[in-house]
């Protein structure tokens, strides 16, 4: 069934993949190799001298209970961001898909948040929830709830999750919306004639047909929540209160750029590389089996 | 009018490239924006206009941490500026970088400055002076924590605004009275680690870290879990629990609350003067930082915060002359006195302080001399010279985290400080390993 295209000779295929290989080499393999190499040293910040420590940096990190806690924080954060960005996106896409008139307007409006840079999104949400001048925290105060994400770790986590997921809803919405348009109308009409109501049709027909998109978004969102949420956390909580929002990526930044400890920072990025690699392999091996193309 | 002058200058510079070449450029990277940024720019312009051999080019590189990072990254790429502003917590990092920095006193002397190192205020220069007594960087903006009082808020809560707040015992009583009088925010603070641990330790003459707070070597350990510190933080933890101390964040977020008139007392840098005096619509007053009566040798002296200017290696001799000339200009009495009066930062020389006094500035702006008095009242001790700890920016982050544990009631002060010591010491050991 699968279509295979074969090339005669090797020059053309090599030329065709060369740009991608080159980009990967320059922007991925070279820096990743550097990180692995640097993780074996404790250098001074100015690069004047460095001590070879073998796996000492890894030993130091894994022996640190705060670093281990950071894994848990990252897991909680990533799961929450992924769920909070995918479920509302799917809901909105389904709703927009049902519209006959004006879906273009909704679509455009719903995509806007994606254009907001994470750091800016962080500042926006910070303003709304600012303990002193925030609109939302003021309303919450009127309702008798004392919002204080500066000291309450749970609230801080909630805020960074919402701020990270918000812009992402747009991105996910786009993909879900396109996928919904591709669901064959005839199948849905047949089910409707058989008496299946909207939600029933959604669960048994639409959702399974969306599974390739859902799977793709799952992978992309997990990677996003691991790496690209730095700006939000930096602007809203700086990893606090205590360590409640210190995710692994934020710790790489804090150790590398605040602490000038490039050895530890490199070791952490190597660990992160392995974690995300394993996670992606896991997703492809186990979840993809349940995806129907 | 101005435009046409600039235009004429541009044309004449364009027409006479030789003249432009004769000026040696000196790059100066700093961390100031807003009003302070303007004042720095004015200093640079004044220097450039005062002579024709050198041209200082100032550029803003982000906040303190970002500026230091930019300097380090530039050094690694061999594009470093001649002069780099580094905040006080980066001092140990810079001092350890032997091949990257050139001692300021050398550069200034070579440029013909009659540098008398003794003319600098001890507690200011001590932070940046090597164990041999040489000034390695030029203190640029130095401040020290003081207590800011909102007199109107005190009165509104039925507390005599002239009440003695020189000791924390008295402040404790005042906070209770303020709370009872209906004040929602009796006390806020900025820079909690700097004020309530680093300065607290120096002020009571107890060590913050071993080896003379790191001055005597990199094999230092934190001692911030000592009796005096824990007692103070326990009291503050209790105030936080009772709603007498309001925690607003790790940096100077509390300043917004105080300037808006929402809080009665505020522990903040003396350099908060510029912002408070321009924004506050209430009667405010500066008081010395309180101390615990009967603890240690209080009041000893407080220590500074702020930044100093480092000269970086890897440039031409002629350029170093320009850098030195600029630093000599900055440390001159007139420039210092003006800077002190404009910003609330401390003067770095006793002469500048005298000049300010002679000009009647302290009489016209009561309280502006309190920081100077607080810093210079006593001869500094090994515990009150300052701090010289590697990875200190990050250690402050750890301290912030642990303090949040106290304010939220999750940890006792002793638990939090023991944990801060353990975590901070691990970073100090790594710094020691990197700079062996």
CATH class of chain A: Mainly Alpha
Question: Radius of gyration of chain B in whole Å, from Cα?
Answer: 23 Å
Shape of chain B: globular
Strand content of chain B: 5-15%
CATH architecture of chain A: Orthogonal Bundle
Beginning-to-end CA distance, first to last residue of chain A: 13 Å
Helix- and strand-based class of chain B?
Answer: alpha/beta
What is the strand tally of chain A? Answer: 2
The tally of beta strands of chain B, per DSSP, is 10
Largest sheet report of chain B: 6 strands, mixed
Q: So, the CATH homologous superfamily of chain A?
A: MetI-like
Helix content of chain A: over 70%
> Strand-and-helix sequence of chain A, N→C?
HEEHHHHHHHHHHH
**Beta-sheet strand percentage of chain A?**
under 5%
Low-confidence stretches of chain B: 1-20
Tally of individual helices of chain A = 12
User: Helical element count of chain B?
Assistant: 21
Report on this structure.
The complex is a heterodimer of chains A (293) and B (436). Chain A is mainly α. Chain A has a single domain, classed as MetI-like (MetI-like fold, Orthogonal Bundle), CATH 1.10.3720.10. Helix content of chain A is 72%, strand content 2%. Chain A is built from 12 helices and 2 strands; from the N terminus they run H-E-E-H-H-H-H-H-H-H-H-H-H-H. Chain A has helices at residues 11-38, 56-62, 65-98, 103-111, 118-129, 135-142, 153-181, 185-193, 198-227, 230-236, 248-258, 262-287; strands at 41-43, 50-52. Chain A has a two-stranded antiparallel ribbon with strand order 1-2. In chain A, a hairpin with a 6-residue loop joins strand 1 and strand 2. In chain A, 32% of the residues are buried. Chain B is an alpha/beta fold. Chain B has helices spanning 2-15, 17-22, 34-50, 64-76, 91-96, 104-110, 122-125, 151-156, 168-180, 192-203, 210-213, 227-241, 254-259, 273-279, 317-331, 333-343, 350-358, 361-364, 370-376, 392-407, 413-434; strands at 24-30, 54-60, 83-87, 101-102, 138-143, 145-150, 187-189, 265-269, 284-287, 305-312. In chain B, the strands form 2 sheets. In chain B, strands 1, 2, 3, 4, 5 and 10 form a 6-stranded mixed β-sheet that branches. Chain B has a 4-stranded mixed β-sheet with strand order 7-8-6-9. The longest helix of chain B is centred in the C-terminal third of the chain and has 22 residues, at 413-434. The model of chain B is unreliable at 1-20 (pLDDT under 50). At the A-B interface, helix 11 of A face helix 4, helix 20 and helix 21 of B.
